[in-house]
Amino acid sequence: MEKNTIRILLAEDDRNLGNILKNYLDAKGYATTLCVNGQEATDTFAKKEFDFCILDIMMPVKDGFAVATEIRAANRRLPILFLTAKAFQEDKLKGFEIGADDYITKPFSMEELLLRIQAILRRTDENKAGTPDNSYNIGQYTFDYNRQVLTIRGKEQKLTSKEAGLLKLLCTHSNEVLDRSTALNQIWNDDSYFNARSMDVYIVKLRKYLRDDPKVELINVHGVGFKLVMNH
């Protein structure tokens, strides 16, 4: 295997679909490991290193949400893409709360899957390849965008790529109103109603991460957007 080959953990209980996806991704130059249930996926994740995870939600033994929760506990930065046969928005929001990077709903084309993977990896690479000025002071916090880490008094909070991207955008607009559609188009590439709801989930999470400094506030500006306020 070449040094730069992306290693993908694919968890899909439909073996036929799983083999089709594995063969397609392998043909595109990815090294894909197929697991047919959630327990097999978590066992495999514990034994091998991966650069990307594709998880079906509805799986026997352990569902995709449970697998993603275990992966996130071990690694906050590993990209996770959910496969779902459901169109229920609640499932999607739950996935984003866990820390998913994206969703794709069955049935989907192989080309669409490949584009989603490439887009997520591109965002991840941009985070890694950042410059030294991607460090921000937020009250008593230090936010290192390149490492996706928020630190206060020696305590580190690791962020997902979307959390880090949204917080960076808020930092560059600190003490100003960040328009909702601007944030959605830059982080989600789409200002649809569903993405707006998922962004609200991320705002709640960021607010929780920033609560150790009472002088830092992340406030909603009704009907407009959000404002990261640092009261001196």
Fold and architecture overview:
The chain is α/β, with parallel strands linked by helices and 232 residues long. The chain folds into two domains: 7-128, Rossmann fold; 135-230, Arc Repressor Mutant, subunit A. It is built from eight helices and twelve strands. Strands 2-1-3-4-5 form a five-stranded parallel sheet, sandwiched between helices. The protein has a four-stranded antiparallel sheet with strand order 6-7-8-9, with helices on one face. Strands 10-12-11 form a three-stranded antiparallel sheet. Helix 2 (38-47) packs parallel to helix 3, helix 4 packs parallel to helix 8 and helix 6 packs across helix 8 (193-209). The chain is globular and about 55 Å long. The termini are far apart. The relative contact order is 0.10. The mean pLDDT is 88.
